[in-house]
Automatic annotation (TrEMBL):
SUPFAM superfamilies cross-referenced by the UniProt entry: P-loop containing nucleoside triphosphate hydrolases (SSF52540), TPR-like (SSF48452)
UniProt protein name: DUF7779 domain-containing protein
SMART domains assigned to the protein according to its UniProt record, in alphabetical order: TPR
InterPro entries per record: DUF7779, P-loop_NTPase, TPR-like_helical_dom_sf, TPR_rpt
Superkingdom: Eukaryota
Ranges of residues in domain DUF7779: 585-675
Pfam families found in the cross-reference section: DUF7779
Length: 1066
C-alpha cells in the first residue's frame, strides 16, 4: 500500500499540496479508507481544483496485541519520506495539512523532525497552514492522559476497558508524547492554524460488573484544543468528538459542511491568493487549448445537445402559429343551447389581455351522452380567435395522449415522427414557454389513473388555459368547473327539431302543435340526452316518419320498462333503457353483414377504427369469421350502411371509423355469451393479422413504432374487456380453450410500450397476459410466449431499478424457454436462447453478481454463433460486467471490436457500446493516476469525455432528447463537466436529465435520487450551500425509501447513488 496516494492532481498545474491525515477512526469497524479517500476525490477536488490532494494512510493497532503511543509516532518518518518523494521537482510548492484527532501527533512529530533534519527541512519551510479537527493540543491540562484514552475509545467505537485502550493506558511513553506536544507548541510557526473544537458532549462507554454504562462528556474543548500560537484561530463546532473526527457530509443540515469549507478556503486564500491562481490559470489557458474545447467549447455546443431554447412568437420558420387541432372533430352546425355553460367556461379560461401570470383550468364533468365533448369542441371553434393555439387531446389513456401529442408536435412544426416521449416533452416545453394565449383540451379523462396521466402530459403550470372533460364529478373539486346536467326541455326540443330539419311552414297549425307535443314527449323519454336525441333524429329521417308516428312506434315497441337501467363503466354512469331502445331501432335496420362488422368493432378501440387495418386483414387467411368483409366491395357496403345509421361516424379524411362508448357498450349488451366470445375471438384474429412484429434479433425497431402505435389502443381494449369479463364471471375466452394468439398480441403490444417509452402501459398488458398463460399452460403450447412475457416484465423491472424482481422474471423466462425446447416449441440454434441467457446475465449484474453474469453473457454470445443479427447489446452488457469487475483492458479490447462506425446515428446499439467504452476509459484514467501517471490519466479522461459526448449526440439523434437513455448519458456528460469545473454547463446538462426522469417518476425514482444528489454537490461547489444541501438531503430521503432498511446507511458519496441504478445507467 502506498502510504501517500495522490487522489487528485489538480485540473491544470497544481498550486499547492493538501495532505489529509486521519485519526484513530481507522480502527473503527465501520471505517473504510475508501470512504475517506472518496470524500477527498469527490468533494475536496471540486472545491480546490488547483490543489494536489494526498491522503496519508497508516496502520495502528491492527496487527499487534500490544499497542503503544510510540507506534503512532513512528509513522512521522514515513510521512516525511513519502512527502519528499511526492514533492520531488516541486519542493517549493506550499503544503496545507488537514489533521484529525491523533493524526496531529504524527504531524507534530514529523514537523519537529523536519526542523532538526536537513533532509526534511523543506517540508517545514513550505508548510503553508494546518487545520486541526478534534485534536488535543495542550498537554498541560488536568487529566490529559485520561482525555486521550477517552478520545481513543470514542473514535474506535470501543469501551474504556477495551484491549487497545488498556494497552495505551499502561504505555510508559506518556512522557515522550507530552514532550512532542510541548515542543510543537513552542515552535509557534509563522503559518496560519485553524483549530475546530467540539461543543457537544460524547458518549463514553465503560463496563462495570458486566453492565455497560454511558457517560456524557465534552472531550476536545476549547481549553485542551488551544495551542497558544500567535497565528491560531479557534472555531467552535456543534458536533461531538466522533462526528468531528470525520469529514463533514454534504447532506449535513447544521451548516458544518459549509463551515469547514469556509475555514479551509480562507486558509488557502492566505497561502495562495486568488490573484496568483488566476494569473497561472490565464497563462495555462493562453498557452494550450482546453480539453473541453474539443467537444463542448461553448455554451452553444451544450445547448445544442439539450432541450431547445424557449420559443416565442418571434420564432424561426417552421413553427406554425396560429395552430388549431381538434381532430377528428369538425364544427357542429346543429349544436344548440348551452350558452350559459360556454360563457362560464370562457369567463374562467380566458384572460382579457390574452396572457396571464397563472394557468387557468376548467373541468367539465357529467354522465356519458351529455354532450361534454361537443361542448368543448364548440367552445374551441367559437372562441378560436382568442387563442393563438388550440389543441384537443384524447385523454382516455396514455397511448391516446401520446398519439395526440405526436400530432400536436407535427402540426406545431416542432418535428414530425418524434418518439412519444420526445413529442410529449416538446409540446409541453413549447406551451410552457411561449408568450401567447393557448388552449389545451383534455377530452374524456376517465381512466382510473387520470390524475397521474394528466400530470404527465400537463404543460408548465404558469400560463395557458386547460379544459378537461370527464365523467368524474370529483374533478370539479380539484379544479374550478361544473357538473353538466341534462339539456333544458326547450333546448332539447329545439335540437331535435333542428336535426330533423323540421319545416313548420309546410304544416297547418294543428299538425305543428301535434308535432311539437310529440317532440316534447320524445326528448323527455330520452332523458334530454343529446346523444339519444341525435340517434332518434337519425331514425326519424331514415324512416321518413313524423314525430307523432315515431312516438307511436316507440311506445308500441316497449322493449323494456322505462325504469330498467343498464350500468356502464362505473356505478355513477346509469342510463335509461329508452336510450338503448333508440339504438335497437337503428341496429335492426342494418343488414346482417353490417351487424356483424358492428359486433366485431365493439371489441376494438371506439375512437379510431382504421379502415386500413380492416382492408389489410383481407390479405390474411382468417376463415369464415370474416365472410362479411371478405372483399373490398363487401367492406365498402358495410361501412356505408353503418354511416347511414349514425351508430358510427367517419373521420374527416375518410380513413377511420369511430363510435360512441355508449354505442359500443350497447352492441356488447345485445350479444349473448357465445356470440360475444365469437366476436372477441374475431377481434383478436384481426389485430394479430395486422400487427407488425419485429424479428427477434431486431426487437428494437423504431421503423415499426408508428404503425404499432396506431394499433395499440385496440390491444388495450381487448385486454380491458377480457379482464372485466373474467371479473364478471363470463370470460370472453372460455377457460376450456387456450388462445395463445391473445397472449401473443398482448405481449407484442406490451413490448412496443416498453421499447417506445410508454412504461406505464407495459404491466397493464403483460400482467394479464402472464396470468392467462399460467392458467392455460396445461393445455400445451404456451411456454415460449410465457417466456417472452417474463422477459418483458423483467425488462420493465430493470428500467425501474427493481433488481431482484428483474432477476426473478428473467430466471422464470429461462425456465420457460427450457421447457419450450423440451416441448419442441423451439429448436436450437434459436435467438430465443440467446435472449434468455443474456437476460439472466442482466438480472445477475443488477444484483452485483458479476462473475455469474459474465458466464451467462458468454453463453449467450456462444449460442448466437451461426445466427443473424447485431450483437452489440449483449457484448456491451458483458463488457460493462468486465468493467465493474475491474477487467478494464479485456473490456476495452472486446467492446472496440463491435464499434464499427462511431457516427452511425441510426443505430442506438453503437451508442450503448460506446457508453461502455467511455466508462472503461474513466476507470483506466483513475488507475493511471493512482500509479502516478497523471498526464496519461488526464488524457484518458479527455478521451472518455469525447466518447460520452459522441454517445449523447448519437442518442439525441436516434432516440430523441427526452428518452430516458438519452437522459442517462446527459448525466454522464454532466459528470464530466462537473469534474472539469465547467459548472454552468454541468448544471444545464444535469437539469435536463432530471427533467426527463421526472416525467415518469414511478419508474425513475432511483435516477431522480442520483441526479438530485449530483446537482446538490454541484450547487455546493458553486457556493450555493443551502440550495445544494437541500437537494442532497432530498436525494438521501429518496434513497432511504429505495434501499432495504437492513442495507441502508448514510451515503458517503456518489457510489452509494450509483449502486441504486441499473448497470447500463452508470
Amino acid at each position: 500500500m502506498n502510504p501517500l496516494p495522490v487522489l487528485h492532481d489538480g485540473v491544470r498545474t497544481a498550486d499547492l499540496d493538501i495532505v489529509s491525515i486521519p485519526g484513530l477512526p481507522t480502527l473503527h469497524p465501520r471505517y473504510k479508507w475508501k470512504d475517506h479517500n472518496q470524500w477527498l476525490r469527490e468533494v475536496l477536488s471540486h472545491r480546490v481544483p488547483q490543489a494536489r490532494i494526498m491522503a496519508f494512510q497508516y496502520d495502528f493497532g491492527h496487527d499487534s496485541q500490544e499497542v503503544a503511543w510510540m507506534q503512532l509516532m513512528q509513522h512521522a518518518e514515513g510521512l516525511l519520506y513519502s512527502l519528499i518523494h511526492r514533492r520531488e521537482g516541486v519542493d517549493s510548492r506550499p503544503i496545507i495539512f488537514v489533521c484529525f484527532s491523533f493524526g496531529a501527533f504524527i504531524l507534530k512529530r514529523a514537523l519537529l523532525l523536519a526542523k532538526d533534519q536537513r533532509a526534511f527541512r523543506s517540508i517545514l519551510d513550505m508548510t503553508g497552514g494546518i487545520v486541526f479537527l478534534g485534536c488535543l493540543n495542550n498537554e498541560t491540562r488536568p487529566n490529559f492522559e485520561d482525555l486521550c484514552l477517552k478520545c481513543a475509545a470514542v473514535e474506535m467505537g470501543v469501551h474504556k476497558k477495551d484491549r487497545v485502550i488498556e494497552s495505551l493506558r499502561q504505555d510508559h511513553r506518556w512522557t515522550f508524547v507530552k514532550e512532542v506536544m510541548e515542543d510543537f507548541r513552542a515552535l509557534n510557526g509563522p503559518f496560519p492554524v485553524r483549530i475546530l473544537f467540539e461543543l457537544n458532549p460524547s458518549s463514553i462507554g465503560s463496563r462495570q460488573f458486566v453492565v455497560r454504562t454511558m457517560k456524557q462528556e465534552c472531550l476536545c474543548s476549547e481549553q485542551v484544543s488551544r495551542l497558544g500560537w500567535d497565528t491560531e484561530q479557534l472555531v467552535p463546532v456543534q458536533k461531538n468528538h466522533a462526528e468531528l473526527t470525520m469529514y463533514p457530509q454534504r447532506s449535513d443540515d447544521d451548516a458544518y459542511f459549509q463551515l469547514f469549507m469556509k475555514t479551509l478556503s480562507e486558509m488557502i486564500e492566505e497561502v495562495v491568493p486568488k490573484s496568483v491562481m488566476l494569473s497561472k490559470d490565464l497563462s495555462a489557458s493562453n498557452g494550450s487549448k482546453s480539453v473541453l474545447s474539443l467537444d463542448l467549447s461553448s455554451d452553444d455546443d451544450v445547448a445544442s445537445l439539450l432541450t431547445p431554447s424557449k420559443p416565442s412568437l418571434n420564432m424561426p420558420s417552421g413553427v406554425n402559429i396560429p395552430c388549431f387541432v381538434t381532430w377528428p372533430y369538425d364544427e357542429n352546425p346543429n349544436f344548440i343551447g348551452r350558452e350559459d355553460e360556454l360563457e362560464q367556461i370562457h369567463t374562467r379560461l380566458y384572460s382579457i389581455d390574452g396572457t396571464g401570470s397563472q394557468q387557468r383550468v376548467f373541468a367539465l364533468t357529467g354522465l356519458g351522452g351529455m354532450g361534454k365533448t361537443q361542448i368543448s369542441v364548440t367552445y374551441a371553434f367559437k372562441y378560436r380567435k382568442d387563442y393563438h393555439i388550440v389543441l384537443l387531446a384524447h385523454a382516455s389513456g396514455q397511448s391516446k395522449l401520446a398519439e395526440s401529442f405526436s400530432l400536436f408536435a407535427d402540426k406545431l412544426g416542432l418535428g414530425a415522427g418524434m418518439s412519444p416521449i420526445k413529442a410529449k416533452q416538446a409540446v409541453k416545453d413549447f406551451l410552457g414557454s411561449i408568450d401567447a394565449p393557448w388552449l389545451l383540451i383534455f377530452d374524456n379523462a376517465d381512466t382510473d389513473d387520470k390524475i397521474q396521466l394528466l400530470d404527465e402530459f400537463w404543460p408548465c403550470k404558469s400560463q395557458g388555459s386547460v379544459l378537461i372533460t370527464s365523467r368524474d364529478h370529483t374533478l370539479v373539486k380539484s379544479f374550478t368547473g361544473m357538473e353538466l346536467v341534462e339539456m333544458t326541455k326547450p333546448n332539447a326540443v329545439d335540437l331535435l327539431l333542428r336535426l330533423i330539419q323540421f319545416e313548420k311552414d309546410v304544416l297547418d297549425d294543428a299538425d305543428v302543435i301535434e308535432e311539437e307535443i310529440a317532440a316534447e314527449k320524445i326528448v323527455k323519454r330520452l332523458g334530454f340526452l343529446p346523444l339519444g336525441i341525435s340517434q332518434a333524429a337519425t331514425l326519424i329521417i331514415n324512416d321518413s316518419c313524423s314525430l307523432a308516428s315515431f312516438l307511436e312506434d316507440y311506445t308500441l315497441r316497449e322493449l323494456v320498462e322505462d325504469s330498467a337501467t343498464i350500468q356502464l363503466d362505473s356505478p355513477r354512469n346509469v342510463y335509461k333503457y329508452t336510450l338503448r331502445t333508440v339504438w335497437n331501432m337503428n341496429f335492426e335496420s342494418l343488414t346482417k353483414d353490417q351487424q356483424s362488422l358492428m359486433k366485431l368493432m365493439s371489441f376494438l378501440d371506439p375512437d379510431r377504427i382504421q379502415l386500413r387495418a380492416l382492408k389489410d386483414s383481407l390479405l390474411k387467411p382468417q376463415g369464415s369469421d370474416f365472410d362479411f368483409i371478405s372483399s373490398p366491395h363487401k367492406l365498402s357496403k358495410c361501412r356505408a350502411g353503418l354511416l347511414r345509421s349514425t351508430l358510427v361516424s367517419q373521420s374527416r379524411n375518410g380513413r377511420e371509423l369511430r363510435m360512441h362508448r355508449l354505442v359500443q357498450a350497447y352492441c356488447q349488451l345485445r350479444m349473448d355469451i357465445e356470440e360475444s366470445q365469437k366476436n372477441f375471438r374475431s377481434a383478436i384474429n384481426l389485430i394479430k393479422a395486422v400487427w407488425p412484429v419485429p424479428t427477434r434479433e431486431m426487437v428494437h425497431n423504431p421503423a415499426l413504432w408508428e404503425e404499432q402505435r396506431e394499433l395499440l389502443p385496440h390491444v388495450q381494449k381487448l385486454c380491458e374487456f377480457y379482464v372485466k369479463s373474467c371479473e364478471n364471471g363470463q370470460p370472453l375466452i372460455p377457460h376450456t380453450e387456450a388462445n395463445w394468439d391473445f397472449a401473443s398480441v398482448l405481449y407484442e403490444a406490451g413490448w412496443f410500450c416498453y421499447e417506445s417509452g410508454l412504461l406505464e402501459s407495459v404491466s397493464e398488458l403483460l400482467v394479464p397476459a402472464k396470468e392467462y398463460c399460467i392458467r392455460h399452460l396445461q393445455k400445451g403450447g404456451g411456454y415460449r410466449i410465457l417466456a417472452d412475457i417474463y422477459g418483458g416484465l423483467g425488462s420493465l423491472a430493470t428500467e425501474s431499478n427493481q433488481f431482484q424482481r428483474a432477476y426473478d422474471d428473467f430466471n422464470e423466462e429461462w425456465k420457460c424457454l427450457k421447457l419450450a425446447f423440451d416441448a419442441a416449441e423451439l429448436t436450437r440454434p434459436s435467438i430465443w436462447e440467446v435472449f434468455g441467457l443474456g437476460r439472466v446475465g442482466n438480472g445477475l449484474q443488477g444484483l452485483h453478481r458479476y462473475t455469474e453474469a459474465e458466464e451467462y453473457y458468454r453463453m449467450a454470445l456462444k449460442a448466437w454463433e451461426g445466427l443473424p443479427g447485431d450483437r452489440k447489446v449483449w457484448v456491451s452488457n458483458m463488457c460493462t460486467c468486465l468493467w465493474l469487475q475491474g477487467k478494464l483492458d479485456e473490456g476495452e479490447k472486446t467492446i472496440k471490436v463491435v464499434i464499427k462506425d462511431e457516427n452511425d446515428a441510426t443505430n442506438f446499439r453503437t451508442g450503448l457500446a460506446m457508453n461502455c467504452l467511455g466508462n472503461i476509459q474513466i476507470s483506466q484514467a483513475e488507475r493511471l493516476k493512482q500509479e502516478g501517471k497523471t498526464e496519461e490519466g488526464e488524457a484518458r479522461l479527455a478521451k472518455a469525455m469525447a466518447t460520452h459526448t459522441k454517445v449523447l449526440q448519437l442518442f439525441t439523434t436516434a432516440l430523441g432528447q427526452r428518452h430516458h437513455k438519452t437522459a442517462d448519458i446527459m448525466y454522464k456528460v454532466g459528470w464530466h463537466l462537473h469534474r472539469r469545473q465547467e459548472y454552468q454547463k454541468a448544471l444545464d446538462m444535469l437539469n435536463n436529465a432530471l427533467g426527463v426522469y421526472a416525467s415518469q417518476p414511478k419508474f425513475f425514482k432511483n435516477e431522480i435520487a442520483r441526479t438530485k444528489y449530483k446537482l446538490g454537490c454541484l450547487q455546493q461547489d458553486m457556493g450555493e450551500h443551502i440550495e445544494g444541501g437541500a437537494l442532497i438531503r432530498e436525494a438521501e430521503r429518496l434513497r432511504k425509501e429505495i434501499v432495504a432498511p437492513e442495507d441502508w446507511e448514510p451515503a458517503q458519496g456518489e457510489k452509494a447513488f450509483d449502486d441504486i441504478v441499473q448497470f447500463w445507467t452508470r
